[in-house]
Automatic annotation (TrEMBL), chain A:
This is Heme chaperone HemW. It comes from Rhodohalobacter sulfatireducens. Probably acts as a heme chaperone, transferring heme to an unknown acceptor. Binds one molecule of heme per monomer, possibly covalently. Binds 1 [4Fe-4S] cluster. The cluster is coordinated with 3 cysteines and an exchangeable S-adenosyl-L-methionine. It is found in: Cytoplasm. Transmembrane segments: none annotated. It comes from the Bacteria. CDD domains: Radical_SAM. The keyword 4Fe-4S applies. Residues 1-231 form the Radical SAM core domain. Belongs to the anaerobic coproporphyrinogen-III oxidase family. HemW subfamily.
From TrEMBL, chain B:
This is Elongation factor 4. SMART domains: EFG_C. The gene is lepA. It catalyses: GTP + H2O = GDP + phosphate + H(+). It is a peripheral membrane protein. Keywords: Cell membrane, Elongation factor, GTP-binding, Hydrolase, Membrane, Nucleotide-binding, Protein biosynthesis. Gene3D superfamilies: 3.30.70.240, Elongation factor 4, C-terminal domain, Elongation Factor G (Translational Gtpase), domain 3, P-loop containing nucleotide triphosphate hydrolases, Translation factors. Required for accurate and efficient protein synthesis under certain stress conditions. May act as a fidelity factor of the translation reaction, by catalyzing a one-codon backward translocation of tRNAs on improperly translocated ribosomes. Back-translocation proceeds from a post-translocation (POST) complex to a pre-translocation (PRE) complex, thus giving elongation factor G a second chance to translocate the tRNAs correctly. Binds to ribosomes in a GTP-dependent manner. Belongs to the TRAFAC class translation factor GTPase superfamily. Classic translation factor GTPase family. LepA subfamily.
Length: 377, 599
């Protein structure tokens, strides 16, 4: 089985924190869709089209900038090339694009999970993030999701913003909870160097909150959502039982996926080995050149590298990583000194071992980057 | 009688010594313009870059006088830095005359004066030379007066040349013949040859550069090094032209080299006298001394696996540089390394740079310090050149530290900043002496420890580069000195201990703690950073526990990037040094160890 990711590289405006690949020129949308179709078609009759596709994810950028016809042609191409038996088709939506008609249109195309880019309900924060929508649009978009009876949905929140208090965060969470979301992704703000925010921080105009305060907010998010029956299953992902994101979870389990569109990444692991590759983040090339020309160099992964990836990804989730899985799928086992280190972390309350599965505690999760480097060193 | 002139050049860095020497080589036909590589004498890359001479050199020239007479010149080039003043004294000993070369725009500098006095003490004939007279800023009159004030004579006796254009070089060549006496040529006495430098060649062993003072050194003769008492055979002897030129004998008055399968420079020390094994001289040439290191520092490989390579590199350097000493040292924080002794700070820097350039060694060096003498309560006196060897506070009766007499030459405008600097460094004012051209010689007695720690840089930056410094060892004096320890969660970081004056310990302690707090990444637990004298904590900072370190997004496109970051962090961890349970990154050590007063 495999998953498909499609990157739609268009936005109305640039959010200050975002370092994904996107452009704000709308004239290129149709040419992009056409190039996308030919990229999809280039996979016809390859080993990649032989596996059953179980998840599709439309991300961006802003996929909801595409119209009915454009989306229809994309899904049409996917169905003609791949054997699709999808349990989850997710599409990222911006609140300002969402109408009830738009929602029923994408539902008709097979989208069964909406991912709403809410980020916050606070007017000032949304402005600071340079989002295209306002709080009212966020409310009405979530309302529309409820009213159209969309099969399932998730909403994004960002916390740990400069100047954000625990109170405004709690208010954001409460407001979101009033829509009874099955799933929430809550991200602590990351300052990326090549963004507007990154520049401002570099120039000393903005002070990101210190780690202690973000850590506190991380706890607020976790406990407040848990109280509403929405449990943390990954560092930034929370859901009601059984409503975990399938597509995203598959990334962490080394399921195969193909990425389409500029800057999209792919991963494929079969009997001939494991590889990662990516399309160049360059729309001009994407429009004018053949897939083999904008596809960047493939990286072949050893079993050991895969095992380290598995630990890096799995330890971020509530499922952790089982020793048996490591041994059987990756031929990897911990050394004595690694075990010693693990026992030490268990004692300190940063990790747990249950039924030969290694997991982080919630304290461990907060410093998991540090712990993973330690574990692998 | 052979027609010989042996001379050296006394000059300050940048005053054009090497360029002028190149002109002499050219005009005497020793070297053609085609072979001319700029500044032939400084043959180490480092020497060329820094414009300083580290080793002594010698070169023989045959000068054809306009009157048809041929005279042999031996130019002995001397090191130009206070760290190497012993080598300078030996090179002077090998000469009858010296060219005092002074930049006509800049005037005389401290180092020049000190070497000049040495030359006068050794009764060398001084030929004053104003160089760079072609420069627009040249002030031959004013600078000429400075020279007259220093050595007497008249301005008319001062030669005016330009090493760059060659102007005045003919007159200089004639003056060398006319004014510098020919060496005494007592060939009938037993052999006495002065080693004024020696270099090491991996095939031939030590090559000694010698001036034969008395007697004759013959090829094949048995020779004895009088200080080390080692005996060898003079397998090869010769003259030092641009290349070595073999000959059968060197007579009294001549300069050349001798090779005798001398396995180590330790056997052929600068200043020692070579005599004939069969017909030994009664007494050696006076002035030989064992060079003693003045400055000490730990040298550790950045990567502990490189310890053996570092040992190999130091061994090779020592073959070429007998003044470098070292012995193994173990640091809890930095692992296995060496404690090395140097003649001075420049010497230390040179060794560090050569380790980097010639051996590609990545090293950490600890803060340099001097050698202290400590009287213990039980009456014993010990020498300490490593802070870790300093006994407990309770066992110490008195600590003695070396003092130097520093002479600083400066334009009068900078007297204020220089005095401030010297006072800050616990200096004791001796006097000041006004000279021509608005220049002053200021004399201070300073603890040497204060001078090894970035004093020279501060002096230069405080005087826009105009001041120059020279110093000589004075004596050991009592001082209120303490060992300042740095502790992380109670564990001492031995590599960061230093010996300092009590009054400065508080400031220094606070500064180091602050720096470490800034540079040691948060750990899973809180870390106390303390500075202490004995068991008394005098400064403290806290590195709070790591509370959050986790990537927010880790989806399909983030995985490669994240994995590569982890790879990099793993590499960085390898270079971390562990003290107790605390991990310290390399950069934190480097930052603290290279911290200067301004930081």
């Amino acid at each position: 089985m495999s998953g498909i990711y499609i990157h739609i590289p268009f936005c109305k405006q640039a959010c200050s924190y975002c370092d994904f690949y996107f452009l704000t020129r709308d004239k290129l949308r149709q040419p992009f869709v056409e190039a996308l179709l030919s990229e999809i078609n280039s996979y016809g009759d390859t080993k990649f089209s032989k596996e059953i596709v179980r998840t599709i994810y439309l991300g961006g950028g802003t996929p909801s900038l595409l119209n009915n016809k454009q989306l229809e042609s994309i899904f049409g191409a996917l169905h003609s090339v791949f054997d699709i038996d999808a349990e989850e088709i997710t599409m990222e939506l911006n609140p300002d694009d969402v109408t009830r008609d738009y929602l029923s249109m994408i539902q008709d195309l097979g989208v069964n999970r909406a991912s709403m880019g809410v980020q916050s309900f606070d007017k000032k924060l949304l402005e600071f993030m340079h989002r295209a929508h306002n709080p009212e649009e966020a409310f009405s978009a979530l309302e529309a999701l409820q009213k159209t009876g969309f099969p399932t949905f998730t909403a994004d929140l960002i916390y740990g913003n400069p100047g954000q208090s625990v109170e405004t965060l709690e208010q954001d969470i409460d407001k979101l909870l009033s829509f009874d979301p099955p799933h929430i992704s809550a991200y602590s703000l990351t300052v990326e160097p090549k963004t507007r925010l990154g520049k401002q921080v570099e120039l000393g105009r903005i002070d990101p909150p210190d780690d202690d305060r973000v850590s506190e907010q991380f706890d607020v998010v976790r406990t407040q959502l848990a109280a509403a029956g929405i449990e943390q299953y990954e560092v930034s992902n929370f859901s009601k039982p059984g409503k975990e994101a399938v597509h995203n979870s598959n990334y962490w389990k080394h399921e195969n996926y193909i990425g389409f569109g500029p800057s999209a990444h792919s991963f494929w692991w079969d009997e001939s080995g494991a590889n990662r590759w990516q399309n160049e983040a360059n729309l001009k090339k994407y429009l004018n050149e053949a897939p083999e020309d904008y596809r960047e160099e493939e990286e072949t992964l050893s079993k050991n590298t895969l095992a380290e990836e598995r630990l890096m990804l799995g330890l971020r989730t509530k499922w952790g990583v089982s020793e048996i899985d490591l041994k059987q799928s990756y031929g990897y086992s911990f050394t004595d000194s690694q075990w010693q280190w693990i026992e030490d972390q268990v004692e300190k309350g940063f990790m747990v071992t249950e039924n030969s599965t290694l997991k982080m505690t919630s304290d461990g999760l907060k410093i998991s980057d540090h712990l993973i480097v330690e574990l692998l060193s | 009688m052979k027609n010989i002139r042996n001379f050296c050049i006394i000059a300050h860095i940048d005053h054009g010594k090497s360029t002028l020497a190149d002109r002499l080589l050219e005009r005497t036909g020793t070297i053609s313009e085609r072979e001319m590589q700029e500044q032939v004498l400084d043959d180490m890359d480092l020497e060329r870059e820094r414009g300083i001479t580290i080793k002594s050199h010698a070169i023989r020239m045959d000068y054809n006088r306009p009157n048809g007479e041929v005279v042999t010149f031996n130019l002995i080039d001397t090191p130009g830095h206070v760290d190497f003043s012993y080598e300078v004294s030996r090179a002077l000993k090998a000469c009858e005359g010296a060219l005092l070369v002074v930049d006509a725009a800049q005037g005389i500098e401290a180092q020049t004066i000190s070497n000049l006095y040495q030359a006068i003490d050794q009764e060398l004939e001084i030929i004053p030379v104003l160089n760079k007279i072609d420069l627009p800023g040249a002030d031959p009159d004013g600078v000429g007066q400075q020279i007259v004030d220093l050595i007497g004579g008249t301005k008319e006796e001062i030669l005016q040349v330009s090493g760059k254009t060659g102007e005045g070089v003919e007159d200089l060549l004639e003056a060398i013949v006319e004014r510098i006496p020919s060496p005494k040529q007592e060939v009938d006495k037993p052999l006495k040859a002065l080693i004024f430098d020696s270099i090491f060649n991996s095939y031939r062993g030590s090559i000694c550069y010698v001036r034969v003072m008395e007697g004759v050194l013959k090829k094949g003769d048995g020779i004895t090094f009088m200080a080390t008492k080692k005996e060898y055979d003079a397998e090869e002897i010769g003259y030092l032209k641009l290349k070595k030129e073999k000959t059968d004998q060197l007579e009294a008055g001549e300069v050349g080299y001798v090779i005798g399968s001398v396995k180590s420079l330790q056997d052929a020390k600068v200043g020692d006298t070579i005599t004939s094994t069969k017909n030994k001289a009664d007494t050696p040439i006076p002035g030989y001394k064992e060079v003693k290191p003045m400055v000490f520092s730990g040298i550790f490989p950045t990567n502990s696996e490189d310890f053996e390579d570092l040992r190999g590199a130091l061994e090779k350097l020592q073959l070429n540089d007998a003044s470098l000493s070292y012995q193994p040292e173990t640091s809890k924080a930095l692992g296995f390394g060496f404690r090395a002794g140097f003649l001075g700070l420049l010497h230390m820097e040179i060794i560090q740079e050569r380790l980097d350039r010639e051996f590609d060694m990545d090293i950490i060096t600890t803060v340099p310090n001097v050698r202290y003498e400590i009287d213990l309560e039980d009456g014993e006196r010990i020498k300490v050149d490593n802070p870790s060897e300093m006994p407990e506070v309770g066992k110490i009766a008195d600590v003695w530290e070396p003092y130097i007499k520093a002479s600083i030459l400066t334009p009068a405008d900078y007297i204020g900043p220089i005095m401030t600097l010297c006072e800050e460094r616990r200096g004791k004012y001796v006097n000041q002496h006004f000279m021509q051209n608005n220049r002053v010689e200021i004399t201070y007695e300073l603890p040497m420890a204060e001078v090894v720690f970035d004093f020279y840089d501060r002096l230069k930056s405080g005087t826009r580069g105009y001041a120059s410094l020279d110093y000589e060892f004075l004596e050991y004096r009592k001082g209120d000195l303490v060992r300042l320890d740095i502790l992380l969660n109670g564990d001492q970081v031995d590599a960061l201990s230093s010996i300092t004056h009590r009054d400065k310990a508080y400031y220094l302690g606070r500064k180091i703690c602050g720096k470490l707090k800034e540079l040691i990444p948060r750990q899973q637990f809180e870390v106390a950073v303390q500075a202490a004298i004995g068991s008394r904590v005098i400064a403290r900072d806290t590195i709070r526990a790591l509370k959050k370190d986790v990537t927010a997004k880790c989806y399909g496109g983030d995985i490669s990037r994240k994995r590569k970051l982890i790879e990099k962090q793993k590499e960085g961890k390898k270079r971390m040094k562990q003290v107790g349970s605390v991990e310290i990154p390399q950069e934190a050590f480097l930052a603290v160890l290279s911290m200067d007063e301004e930081d």
